[in-house]
Amino acid sequence: MAKRLGKQTYALEKPIHIISTATIVGEKEKNGPLKAYFEHCTEDDMMGEKTFEKAERKMMESCIDLVLEKAHITEQDIDLLIGGDLLNQLVTMNYSARSLNVPFLGVYGACSTMSESLAIAACLLDAGVGEIITCATGSHFSTAERQFRTPLELGNQRQTYSQWTVTGMGSCILSCKGKGPCVRMVTFGKVTDYGIKDIANMGAAMAPAAMDTLYTFFQDTKTEPKDYDLILSGDLGKLGSDILKDLMREKGYILEENYEDCGHMIYSASQKTFQGGSGTGCSASVFCSYVYKKLCNKQFKKIIFMATGALMSTVTNQQGDSIPGIAHLVVIENSSVAK
Length: 339
Description:
With 339 residues, this protein is α/β, with parallel strands linked by helices. The chain has helices spanning 27-30, 52-71, 91-98, 113-126, 141-148, 202-221, 237-250, 262-265, 280-296, 314-318; strands spanning 3-5, 9-26, 40-42, 80-84, 104-106, 132-139, 164-165, 168-175, 182-187, 230-234, 259-261, 277-278, 302-310, 325-333. It has ten helices and 14 strands.
């Protein structure tokens, strides 16, 4: 059973291996700095479907099929599917799970859903609940924009502090057996709200939650930033990353060259996404491609993966509420250092 460390962190007893990952991204993402790491790209954001929502579902189904194929297993081998997306009532994951005859747990942490799914899956496997769990999350620019902001047809100008919702899917398979990088610790975050109300300013809304989770993790584990090859936040973008660095510095922790953010990494300045990427598919696609491959190649030995989410909704936005944030964290080690 997992051992509790401090307030919110758990050290897992068993090595929980990530035995396979898969990604599918859109053309804009494929043309970004991480293009060499993305396996599959769709040049048609509609995926041959009549709506963007159905296209997102098709991408998710394809990504899950791909990760199963790479792991050389079938849906009959899966004990549980965990995942989520950004659309109302998790329609992408719910309808994707419909095509699989496996137990399903839908979770919503906005852009933090990938690390949330990994943390839940690792804890369940460590407790003996199943042997193989699949995690999958994703987003689509065209569906998220018109749900949370404005219809694309309006052609509204974007604020310079805004981010671009990633069209991308990421899926991975966790198992108590097999080979691959291991999830060793998890920290479940708390909802944190600093009063940001601007739905375009996701980085500022999520950065306080990232600080709270990361600071709590360091306090719980008695470790420091220098103890990790990579500290990776999810979807803060350039502005949110800078805010997180300032907040952590106030707490006595300096984030230096070993810190990066998925939203900052996925696009280049020439792609005019302003502060970078966001969306459930942002951290999922970066982790399941670039980060996972570097772990497998021993370029990273021990990392922190902490995806962040803005827990807003169209209802609360219309009522003038502020935007709560959440961040969940997992520590992953490659097999050579996992014990």
